[in-house]
Structures are given as C-alpha cells and as structure tokens.
Amino acid sequence: MQIDLDSLPPLEAYHVLTQTIIPRPVAWVLSQNPAGDYNLAPFSFFTPITSNPPLLMLSIGKKPTDGAPKDTRVNIEQRQWFVVHIAHRELAVPMTETARTLPLGESELARVDLELVPFDGFPLPRLKDCRVALACELYDIQEIGAVPQSLVFGRIRQVFVADPAVTEDDKGRVRFDAACLDPLSRLGGSEYATFGGVIKVPRPA
Questions:
Q1: Band of residue 78 on the pLDDT scale cut at 50, 70, 90
Q2: pTM higher than 0.85, yes or no?
Q3: Which DSSP string do the residues of the chain spell out, in sequence order?
C-alpha cells in the first residue's frame, strides 16, 4: 500500500503517521500551574535534537474541546521550567490517565497516586517513581502548521537516572541499562511498546 498524505484530511494523516513512525518515546511533562500546583501530561511527538546545547523538542497541539493552547504550553511559556519524565511499564495506566483534558488549572496529580520529590538543583520537583527525568528550561517556542502546533524546545539542565539502571563498562564509562529502565514507547491508537512486548491501555474519554 502506498498512501498519498496530500489526499488525506489532517486527522487521517495523523493516524497514518502515528501508526508507522513507531515506536516513539513519550514525554511525560510536569509544569507548574498559575496557582503553584502542577500539571502533568504525556506527549509522544517528542525527541532530543542536539547535544551542544543539549536540547529536546515537544510538539504540543491544541485542546480538543475548544482549540485553546494546552496548559503545558501555557505553563512552560509563562514560567520557563518543566520536567520531562520517561515512564516505564508499571506507570502506563497513570500516565495515560493524565492525558485526560481537564479545566484550566486543575492538576492531574489529584487524580493519580504519584509522589513528587525534589529535583536537586532545579526549581520543580520530579515524579519519585520515574526512572528517568530531564530538568528543562525553555529555549524557544515556534508555531508551525495550519492549526498551528507549538514546537517547544527545552534546554536540558539536569538528568536523573535511577541508580539500579546505572552501570559501568570495562573502560569505566557510565552506561544505562535500558532493560532496567523499561521505557514505554507510543504506538498507534491505545497501544504502547515495552521491552517485553506490546501492552494496551485505553485512553480516557
């Protein structure tokens, strides 16, 4: 099958892309709401892009309810700091729950049983149970496309990796055990890939 994306409406093109460009890492992003509590949301249009400076990129769309900018985008633009977590298998259900669209300023953390701990040397906390966390400062935001999407570029200031996943090779260089990290990656629809196979977690309505 060969598919001409120019002939498809945007939603159908989205489904083609998200089921073929796989697996994709999921950025589980913590940002600070105006009232001082925290927003937590997953994004799978996400990747590191440079190492000098160390930058990552998130692509953030609009709210499906009213087309307004998503809280994550607003929070990052206004307060500059955010934390990108990489979830593992056991966190698939709470991570998917935080994809739910909530009223402005309502915290997803009130709906999931997740603990925050200080992120040493950084203004925001991190999720205690995540094995990887990237402390980021806003580098740039660009708008692209007809909707448009927000391309958020973050400069990575600190990286946390859980101690059990940290090893050394025979030359004394630090290595991270990917099987121990067991990162979730996004497939199409309700499916995620793990190091042990494919699991399915329905998205909230």
A1: very high
A2: yes
A3: ----GGGS-HHHHHHHHHHHS--EE-EEEEEE-TTS-EEEEEESSEEEEEETTEEEEEEE-B-TTT-PBPHHHHHHHHH-EEEEEE-BGGGHHHHHHTTS---TT--GGGTS---EEE-TTSSSEEETT-SEEEEEEEEEEEEETTTTEEEEEEEEEEEEE-GGGEEE-TTS-EEE-HHHH-B-EE-STTEEEETTEEEE-PPP-
